[in-house]
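Minutes, project check-in

Agenda point 3 was the complex the collaborators sent over. CS summarized: two entities, 575 residues total, and the question is how they sit relative to each other. Sequences were read into the notes so everyone works from the same version.
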Amino acid sequence: MARILITSALPYINGIKHLGNLVGSQLPADLYARYARARGHEVMFICATDEHGTPAEIAAAKAGQPVAEYCAAMHEVQGELARGFGLSFDHFGRSSSARNHALTQHLAARLGAAGLIEEVSEKQVYSHTDGRFLPDRYIEGTCPNCGYERARGDQCEECTKQLDPTDLINPRSAISGATDLEVRETRHLYLRQSKLRDTLDQWIDSQKGWPVLTTSIAKKWLHDGDGLQDRGITRDLDWGVPVQFEGAPWGGMDGKVFYVWFDAPIEYIAATAEWADALGKPDSEWRRWWRMDEGAEDVRYVQFMGKDNVPFHTLSFPATLIGANFDGAEPWKMVDYIKSFNYLNYDGGQFSTSLGRGVFMDQALALLPSDYWRWWLLSHAPENSDSEFTWENFQASVNKDLADVLGNLVSRVTKFCRSKFGEMVPEGGSYGAREQQLIDDLTRGLTSYQNVMDGMMVRRSAQDLRALWVLGNEYLQEAAPWSAFKTDPEQAAAQIRLALNLIRFYAVISQPFIPDASARIMAALRCDDWSWPEDMAQALGVLPAGHVFEVPDVLFAKITDEQRIEWEAQFSGKN
RNA sequence: GGGCCUGUAGCUCAAUUGGUUAGAGCAGAGCGCUCAUAACGCUUUGGUUGGGGGUUCGAGUCCCUCCGGGCCUACCA
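CS then shared the predicted structure for the full assembly.
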């Protein structure tokens, strides 16, 4: 038994996330958390909403709400959707929490004490109409290079030239279209992460077996050009963690907040504190997960995220934690493994919130139970390259894997038993060579499944699980209890007794992928023994002869062609 | 422009890191079964591994080059 700390990248607050966001971090993290718990490990699974930054303020303004109200409401919405998808967070926190305010300020002060904070004066574009400073990407204008009229302040998407906002001709606010822009001088704090470059480089090198995607992105940032650059960690915004606070080692920072990417990862820690608070536990309970000197030395920490999040998790967040321990007084737990994902595309293009293109979490749950989505998304997770959602593929995979291979197996076994023996595990007969072969095959298959699950090989795990389901159909075909019943009912009884236990076994091992269906199987079997199979023969004897069960409803109804066609049209984004 | 990833059967993906005849699932074809959600099982068709060149006893894997797809490039998060 180990202690495993799992965090999923924080979903941003400004709207409902689409399936691509889900499969890139929260869903695989949940798969791993559920599996780790099922294997008997002590798990702390943390997620939260990422609530600061310009987009949150703009989304709130659009919704006509104060930003705090907007975030509180969206947090509830996202939390409800997370529950709908069966995401088993130990705590779903908020980066705007008091805990995160305090911890972010504390860590910033520590970085200041370490000499890793620098005050920098820079010029930023201020919009009078919007009443705010505008990030480069929120300024639009004509590209001086190619004449494209909707170039953004950081880069022209037409000719890909890198730009400064001041390069733009006829600059305007992308939020309001206002042209009363002004360049103002403003002071900000920079994290001097360049000073930690070699430390970070060695730390990355010392990690074993990280995905190429993770290390290559980190290495790029460490060594590209002049190497790792210092980074501004404050912004001129209202909504966020105040930079000026009591005991701050700097002055004159009133009215500024920390940059969202500084406080967001810190929320992993703060959310664990929120967890303790919610349960009335003392601080020591969360600190034993995060402080090496307070019990976290045996914790294994795994992070899940999309590739766009990798630089912050491999560089700036570690720099924050390393810097905060400059004098050895605060050894924070650092990540042990970063599982990163590529993007999921939608039917030949990208998911698009603005165009209404693709399937979003709320829409998905309105169409089908979460297990359908969990299964398809996980079995097609974009681990090695971007992958693609198509309705045709979704229909085919789900119908075949869930309805035919697994659902129908449950159905044929329970219904056969009911018609021949009643809704009770039949007694009599004994297991022979074919049953032993099944046990051997299952043992081998389970070992492989466990290995790939341990290694967080998501697609491969789905394949292995499915292969285990198939073994059940193969066994039934060969054993043919419907034939045996005619000549030797006792043998048929033994075969069905095994098959009913097999179904329970499948419910247990499939639970990380399809928790609701697993729970329905277990309820129908009137069994609450979820113990992970350690010995296959024993696991297939959990339901004794005489145990009463009931035939469940169809586990997975098939997706019809009519439904598929309708959904294709509904989500094409052309309306 | 620079960097990284990627291209394998009609489709979605593997290939133990250079090692025998490139494998699975789906789709297609044939056979079997009749317990089951017209489900299941068995057999089977299908490949110049994007093109070309090179290194090697041996290349899907390494190198060069060309073509295609994608991502990142530090103030969206």
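Noted in discussion: Residues 370-381+390-539 of chain A form a domain with the Isoleucyl-tRNA Synthetase; Domain 1 fold (CATH 1.10.730.10).
Follow-up: revisit at the next meeting once the mutant set is ready.
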